[in-house]
Amino acid sequence: MLFGLKKRVIGVTGALAALAGVGVFTFTYAKGVSYVSNDPKACMNCHVMREHYSSWVKSSHHKAAACNDCHTPHTFPHKWIAKARNGWNHSRAFTAQDYPDPIRITEPNLEALQANCLHCHETMTADITAHRGFAAGTARCTDCHRSVGHMNLD
After folding, report:
1. Does residue 135 carry a pLDDT above 80?
2. H helix runs in the chain, sequence order
3. Which pTM does this prediction carry?
4. Distance from C-alpha of 77 to C-alpha of 45, rounded to nearest angstrom
5. Helix axis angle, 78-96 relative to 107-120, nearest 10°?
6. How many whole angstroms separate alpha carbon 78 and alpha carbon 83?
7. Domain 38-144, architecture per CATH
8. Are 43 and 53 in contact (CB under 8 A)?
9. Distance CA 134, CA 45 (A)
């Protein structure tokens, strides 16, 4: 009886070690640490984001905002939850090769984008948000300013 239990413990330990090894290898291969940074080049780790990065470099926001400034919430822990969710979604979609072409922003990231636009441009938008559907949440900054962050991506 004791020998069988010992054999199972060794088997489970081996399986967990193998799983951890695969996880570490995958995280390292996918440059996982880079996603914790604020470096826009981290977004370009996946080839599907190269066009987005290149268009951002040409945009009016290139010198003012990096990817996280627009696409993730600014508060703790919301920023890190969004980064973890995005990292998981991006790695899963890239691995399964089932991402939309062209790639599109998700609803949670669209909400963060809208909040960040209004936050950074608060002095300009204070009067605008009172009309044109903003109060009801039906209009977004990107409805009119689609190519501000990324040039000509439709």
Report:
1. no
2. 2-29, 50-57, 67-71, 78-96, 107-120, 122-125, 141-144
3. 0.76
4. 24
5. 140
6. 9
7. Orthogonal Bundle (1.10)
8. yes
9. 35
